[in-house]
Amino acid sequence: MIWEVFRQEDAGDSHTHVGNVHAPDREMALLFAQVQHARRKPTNSLWVASQEEIGEMGAEESAFGGTTNKSYRWAMTYNYEPTAEEVAESESEQAEADRARSGD
């Protein structure tokens, strides 16, 4: 059975996928994951998940959130004078995020 391994370097960090191991059960998978993925790097925790239990969603199915215009939620749609420093920073961050989403 194939087990996918997720590693967390420091407490509070996100777990990231680091590879997989072949093992007959969860306990052996954890042991193999510890040897292969945690022995040389600082590791706070490891997760193993059966490959059969991991679902996948394609790009078209996951695009649900980007189908409607919600620009009214962004500070850049409101033009108040004078612009506070925090608002200017927020506008530039949101404009950059918008460009990244649209692929420009």
TrEMBL record:
InterPro entries (alphabetical): PaaB, PaaB_sf
Acidic residues bias locations: 83-95
Residue span of region Disordered: 83-104
One family name in Pfam for this protein: PaaB
Source taxon at top rank: Archaea
Protein name, entry field: Ring-1,2-phenylacetyl-CoA epoxidase subunit PaaB
